[in-house]
Design goal:
Blueprint (H helix, E strand, L loop, with lengths): L9 H13 L4 H25 L20
Length: 71
């Protein structure tokens, strides 16, 4: 299964502006926070993956990287 990125929308624009506003329009601080959040969520995913049984998910297992569709 591949993931397609949504086309830019008003909602996405609002979320970007809100993230920047939270950091007083400091792009570096915004990106640093987002990267820190990604690191935390990847750790949580690793913990969940270790606690899940193969049968519980009917063969599905979480992936750390998403598949990007260039089309």
């Amino acid at each position: 299964m591949s993931v397609k990125f949504a086309t830019p929308s008003a909602e996405l624009d609002y979320e970007v502006e809100a993230a920047l506003a939270f950091h007083d329009d400091d792009a570096k601080a915004t990106v640093a926070t987002l990267l820190s959040d990604i690191k935390h969520l990847r750790f949580q995913l690793a913990l969940a993956q270790g606690a899940m049984s193969y049968g519980m998910t009917r063969g599905w297992s979480p992936k750390f990287d998403r598949e990007l569709d260039a089309g």
